[in-house]
Predict the structure.
Amino acid sequence: MAIARNVLVVCDASRGHLTASARELLTLARSLADALAGNVDLLALGAAAPNIVADAGAAGADQVCAADGADRQGYHPEAFAAITLRACEAATPRIVLFAHDALGLDLAPRVAFGIGARWATNCIGIAVEGDALRCERTEVGGKLQVVEVIDGQAVATLRPKSIDARAPQSRRDARVLAVPAAPPQAAEGVVFVERRMEDGGAAEELEQAAIVVTGGLGMGSPGAFAKLRELAEALGASLAGSKQAVDRGWIPANRQVGLTGTTVAPKVYVAVAVSGALQHMAGCQKSRTIVAINSDPAAPIFRFARYGIVAKWEEVLPELLAQLSAARA
Ligand SMILES: Cc1cc2nc3c(=O)[nH]c(=O)nc-3n(C[C@H](O)[C@H](O)[C@H](O)COP(=O)(O)OP(=O)(O)OC[C@H]3O[C@@H](n4cnc5c(N)ncnc54)[C@H](O)[C@@H]3O)c2cc1C
């Protein structure tokens, strides 16, 4: 049997547009498909195919899957797994790519099991090497580099911000790939009793922010985060926290930066009272400029920072706010 050459990207488009991580997936998919001499196909869950063909084409897709039920609003694991499996039959992918986010983490293993593929999780890079796929990830908070070489069909999740999304190209719209309807399924086993959205767009907002202000455990209290919010507002920045700050309830979990939170790569990352642990830096070290404020001159964050202030935040923040306010006046 001939080896499949296509790359299928599966993403959440329920906000009506392709997210930054969907564009990163399509950029990676384009380079893999070019190396494999195959197509890039896109299954955008939560959106109707005709609504995104132009956007998808410019971002690197050749075809957008039109599948019954793909525009369903609200994630449903069984329904979306069934749709993705049908899209796999139509697109015959060598590799299926998901973002390493809540949707990818739930759906990718179901799809890997469904098509009998190997799965590689939390990849930071994937390349074609000979006839194989070389999937790279880090472990132990970034201390270990793990490379998995997969000869057959693969399903992978890509860590957001691992690669730069290509700028939109002015090329033709993607074609529509009709995905045949599946025979009626038995009743869905998963029933949602309630859906709650808590600051739902926070992770996406953080991922796209040009400036991020992050507070750590050294802030000392939830009240101190109000001061940090003032700084974020004055800079037009998104507010985030370290895991320690999140664990204490000073800032919501979907604003955590790091290995088990969101990965950001803003132009400026302002880390206030954050020590710079490896697990934190895994989520922000691709920032263009890191500014650190920390009272400990030996804090690891200073190894990553371009600009550092060794002082207590209580002394620095009022001065910074006064300077910003004077500059605006
Ligand atoms: C599997 C795993 C996953 C993890 N994932 C994440 C993750 O996603 N994100 C994450 O952040 N962490 C993560 N962690 C936790 C991580 O190891 C660190 O514990 C955490 O990042 C430390 O947070 P912090 O810098 O706020 O606190 P600390 O390390 O306690 O640092 C506080 C800093 O504040 C400074 N400070 C104190 N008072 C002041 C003051 N008045 N003014 C200025 N500076 C002051 C101190 O000098 C210190 O450097 C993970 C850990 C594990 C094991």
Remarks:
- The pocket of flavin-adenine dinucleotide is lined by residues 216-218, 242-245, 256, 258-261, 273-275, 277, 279-280, 283, 293-296, 299, 312-314 (CB under 6 Å).
- The domain at 6-179 is CATH 3.40.50.620 (Rossmann fold).
- The mean pLDDT is 91.
